[in-house]
Each structure stands twice: as C-alpha cells, then as structure tokens.
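We were asked to recover a plausible sequence for a given structure. The inputs and outputs are reproduced exactly as logged, with field labels preserved.

PROBLEM: sequence recovery
POSITIONS: 144
GIVEN STRUCTURE:
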C-alpha cells in the first residue's frame, strides 16, 4: 500500500521536527514548509493527502493558504492548527473548507486520531468515485 503524504506548514522549526518524527513513525511520508509560499510551491510539484496548516505564518494567514491549495483532485484534506483559537478563526476556517481545526499545544494522540479519521474519509470518497467511474464505463461499454 502506498504511503499517505502529509505536508506540515508551520514556522516553528521545533514543532516541524517533532511532528515529522511522530508522523513518520506512524508510516506517513512527511514534507514540511515554513511559509505559505513554500507550501504552495510544494503543492504544485506533488499531491499531498493531508496538509497541516498553522494559522499564523510569516507571509500569510493559514486561512488564506486554505484557498490557495484548494482545487486538487482528489482534494487534499486540510487541517488548521492554531495557537490562537477563536470562534472567528474556527468559522472562517470551516467556511474556507478546512476539514478539521486543532488547537496548540498539539496532543499527539488527538492529532493522530484526527489524521486517521480524515484520511479514512478521503479513501472512502476516492473508492466511491472509482466505483462510479467503473460503473459508468461498464454501462457505456454495454451500450456499444
């Protein structure tokens, strides 16, 4: 089975190192970015199953980054991570298609549970799409 790819976007180098270690131990392929621009560039080069986005980045808000990395097929699961929780941030994140919202300090078990749940949902959606395409192709083939 192919490893799931995760992009972590945060300007805290220590947090990047810690999260990378935790996620790689769980079998994920991890890449990191310290700025929104770096994250956008990396998303242009490859697909990530999931992106962990800090809400406060040096060059943009994480909520802005949500919009800029949207549009992939299959869609990247986007999780906002913040040390500045507020109702406004949470609502804005959800409105901009964040799939989850995690408050710092990050609890490893909570993070891993959220990632697993969201990636499982992504896999189920991918399978439904594949099944629909296969059914469509089969019905078209039967009509010829």
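RECOVERED SEQUENCE:
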């Amino acid at each position: 089975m192919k490893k799931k790819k995760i992009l972590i976007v945060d300007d805290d180098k220590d947090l990047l190192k810690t999260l990378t270690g935790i996620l790689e131990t769980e079998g994920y392929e991890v890449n990191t970015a310290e700025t929104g621009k770096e994250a956008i560039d990396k998303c242009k080069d490859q697909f990530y199953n999931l992106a962990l986005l800090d809400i406060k980045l040096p060059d943009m808000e994480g909520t802005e980054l949500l919009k800029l990395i949207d549009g992939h097929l299959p869609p990247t699961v986007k999780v906002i991570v913040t040390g500045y929780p507020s109702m406004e941030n949470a609502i804005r994140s959800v409105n901009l298609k964040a799939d989850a919202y995690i408050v710092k300090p990050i609890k490893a078990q909570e993070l891993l549970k959220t990632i697993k749940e969201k990636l499982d949902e992504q896999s189920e959606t991918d399978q439904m799409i594949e099944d629909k395409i296969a059914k469509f192709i089969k019905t078209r083939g039967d009509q010829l």
